[in-house]
Write a structure and sequence with these properties.
Largest sheet: 4 strands, mixed
Structural class: alpha+beta
Protein name: Putative nickel insertion protein
Keywords: Lyase, Nickel
Radius of gyration: 24 Å
Distance between the termini: 22 Å
Family: Belongs to the LarC family.
Strand order of the largest sheet: 6-1-12-11
Strand content: 25-35%
Oligomer: single chain
Order of helices and strands: EHHEEEHHEHEEEEHEHEEEHEEHEEEEHH
Number of strands: 19
Shape: globular
Number of helices: 11
InterPro entries: Ni_insertion
Length: 409
Amino acid sequence: MATHIHLDLLGGLAGDMFLAAAIDAGLVDVAGLQRELQSVGLGPVRVISERVVRGAIEGVHVRFEGWDPAMESDHRHLSTIEAMIAESSLSDGVKRRTTAMFRILGQAEATVHGIALERVHFHEVGAVDSILDFVAAAWVIEEVDATFSFGEIPVGSGTIETAHGTIPVPAPATAKLLEGFELTYQDVATEFVTPTGAAILATVAAQPGKRQGRLKATGFGCGTRDFKSHSNVVRLVVMEQGAGEQPSAPSSEAARWERDEVVQLICEIDDLQPELMAAVEAQLFDAGALDVVREPVLMKKGRSGERLSVLCETELSEALLRVIFVHTTTFGVRVVPVSRVKLRRSRQLVETTLGQVHVKVGWLGDEAIKATPEFEDCRLLAERHHLPVHTVYLEAQRAAAALLTEGQI
């Protein structure tokens, strides 16, 4: 039996909430986890779990106790944390995953602050309880050996106070980690997803799976704060998938890719300046367009023009139609329902000689068949190293191709 885990992020996600939900779902041997945590060199760490109520939902809340007071610090360099992990007696898998999670967050911090990865100095995330959050999350992910999915990612508003001063919510490093994911903004002045939570989401996104199977267990992980606006919990749903639900080889071509229904908005324009069309294109993407294509066409009476083709989700078609009518000269738009076939996608970090780059991975069934570097990551690295972007891009392509060949994606 294969295992699939789905996360319902009702109150967002933090490291302690992820662990608490796993405990509530019966996935964690707490005594075994404590032994692992005590090997990190922080002292006789204990995992304290208790049942609490957040909003209308009861679940588990966890905290850590018992570490050596001499180890108490709220800031550590990435290299210090990596050394602690390397010198522990954690399993090789947990070591690799914990280190990867810290490096994912470290790269986000480095990008946000414009410094080299080696110079990253964690503040709140360098504290003992945050380190334990990362190790515990990595241990759970390794132990369950599951595929993952998750629902809408809520993010709050306002600001929070940190060692860097007053920063917006979501925190810049958190926002960097969540690039490429769909976010739902909530009018609540709180941090729904912490940097640790964002690193967990980025990690499990590299182990994608389909939300189906026999429901085996559920667990609720509770955050520390109790809000009137929402239940500050994450729900973890455990499903068992047998041969009938998740075949090792797809039984038909339809099982090899994903299908969905979208809308294509099409019109031809011959009386709008080209630079204004470029502005319209930007406005369409800002309004949620999936794709915008402009192509030259020969219109009636021999007039040259442009065909504007916009692909969008059905529920966004009205908003995008408004953009087209308000900001172009067209009097009519053709609305065409379109069936779309696409590869299942995930994001993964790859190491290059110049730094880490996210790649978009395309899956044909259970096989990763292509990986494309994210341009913005390459651009930022190119600026940092004073190199052409295509040099960084090619380096990232080579690194991704090597991982594909070795079956590590």
